[in-house]
Amino acid sequence: MNIGQGLIDKVRATVGLTGDPAGIRVVCAMSGGVDSTVTAALLKTAGFDTVGITLQLYDHGEAVRRKGACCAGQDIHDARRAAAAIGMPHYVLDFESRFREAVIDEFVKSYLAGETPIPCVTCNRTVKFADLLQRSRELDAAAMATGHYVESRARPGEPHRRDMFTPADLARDQSYFLFGTTQAQLDYLRFPLGTLTKPETRAIAASLNLAVADKPDSQDICFVPDGRYADLILKLRPDAAEPGDIVHMDGRQLGRHDGIVHFTIGQRRGLGIAGAEPLYVVKIDAPARRVIVGPRDAQRQTDIRVFGLNWLGDADVDGTPQPVFVKIRSARPPVPGEIWRDEQGPMVRIAAGEFGVSPGQACVLYDSDGVGARVLGGGTIARSRD
Fold it and tell me: What are the b/e assignments for 171-200, b being 16+ CB within 10 Å?
């Protein structure tokens, strides 16, 4: 394999485990895409005892016939073929039942409650970084590696503790989806692509003649055919199609809808109503099956209640506000804010406010913005009390 010594040294430094690499087992989670495949190839080339594991997460009967899926059908085949080309053991684990229970069912339940869930976060917290990590330990692996674009480094003065940072390629930053990674999990995980850009990753794949070098990236929600999440929900829960009213926040009824699952906070297009001004979804009242709309300014929110806070920072969150940078959507940059804890739990305040704050989405906290920002943790955005 044609990988320079400098890159090999960088991979070994990223793994950060002392001793002869040949005696250090690292499990690599392989989805069948270019990122995880290159991760496995780098580990193997750096001399580690590398073992690939692919999870079959859902029925691949349909997925095998379409591009952009992961953890099913063609991708399992691609992972198996890549492992053979790299020269490493590879196992496929059937986690379909676990994935259905922990991810798909929770995804549907959240939408029916008027939320906008992130199944990738749920999958990372339950299946990948809990169940798969446990399997890695059972294989006597010293670490588990993934192809996520984040960086982890040993904590100064605490070599067995690691911190998470945004990667060199901010366009590929996946830290937003990993906020739920616990300290114990983070200490065990490794992310060899954190110092690389996506073009560099593809160039490495091409130089190694890996078949996935030009393979398209998978879509965000792997188990939703064609990205039509409402179709999946209606298939599993036909009662989700119950109609209701579309109401202006001033009380006027503007129209009807065919189910709240077709809407999310901040949505402007596809509302099926006409108005003198642009209207956005500002609230979803699930019990009453009402979609409330209003002008853009009505979306601005300063204070955000979060639950399920996973805190990775040094100082505990208490009643004293701590300065942080806040990110409420994966595609948006973090903005200045602060976090504290009151009698009801963690509260985040965004200095200038944010638009489209949606229950069910993640609120991720950093110590700064840009490349190399440390991930301090995050939580799930809770419903407003009104």
Answer: ebbbbbbbbbbbbebbbbbbbbbbbbbbee
